[in-house]
Give the backbone structure.
Amino acid sequence: MWTVDGSETSGSGTIVRTALGLAALFGEELEIHNIRSRRDPVGLRPQHQAVAEAVAQLTGGALEGASVGSTALRYSPGHRPVGGKLSWAIGTAGSAMMLAVALLPLAAAARIPSRFRLEGGLFQDFAPSAFHVQQSLLNQVARMGLSAQIEILRPGYFPKGQGVVEIDVRPVPKRLFPFRAPFSGGDVRVSGVALSSHLRKQLVSERMAESCEDRLRRAGYEVSFRIIHDNTAPQPGAALAAFAADSEGNIWGADCAGARGRRSELIGDRVARSLIEDLASGATVDRYVADQLILFAALASGESEFVIPGVTEHVEANLWLVSEFLGVAYQLDGHRLKIQGIGYEFDAQEAGGAQDRQ
């Protein structure tokens, strides 16, 4: 049995999501205690509960303590992850994209393709946005051999949520390739999307895009934005995302959601500043995808190498987990990260998903 102290490193929900995914893939029983003990409020939030329930459903597993506010959780796996058409609704504005990221490696290990319909928050602070997962993370893991696409069916914002996405994932035929992005190239181009719901008259999409474009062009980048006016979301809201790509195939993303009292021009400036900082750092991935890639690099066959903008608490948490429970060797030299993957066989699990680990 794996035992995880949820107060280690970041003490965040990242530990819960990553540990559950690993336990499911390797057929290990898992106990987590001190869940989010250094956060306010402590314990599981609705999005973490949804992850636990979805992992259990995909693997025929059993759960104890999977309720909102719980500081201890036990998971017992049943079988290898199943695919097919499934749906989950968080029921609040809790991040549906955190759920999507957590389910991605499990769907990659299923016997058949998966289509998951997820409902919850899609654009909010302190969580990956639907745009970022769609255009940054999924393009990065595609380089490793994992094929997945996300379709945004209805935007969802804080506090109501009710956004809807569908994610399609094809099983990985054998093993993931390592992620290799040791250096960046030239000819960086920037594109983006400016979304607003029920705010057309206020020109929110246009104002966000214009502010972001202005700062990026002053920094020397060629920019093009797509403007979207939505009328399907259950409440007014907005989101802006910008993505840079270079001649080496590297991608960087930055985004920001709207909030009460947050001016459109501030959102545009914030996104541009974040993207410019990551590009100027010499990193080959952005600050948000840096920690998300660690699990996939740990499972890959061979050494992954990429440069991160900085060492965040989420990077520390995921490196600790893959080292502690998979014995993964990694080297962090400044901002250059090398991870020796264990060569997980996505199509060769026995009952319960167990595999030998290095």
User: Anything to note?
Assistant: The mean pLDDT is 94.
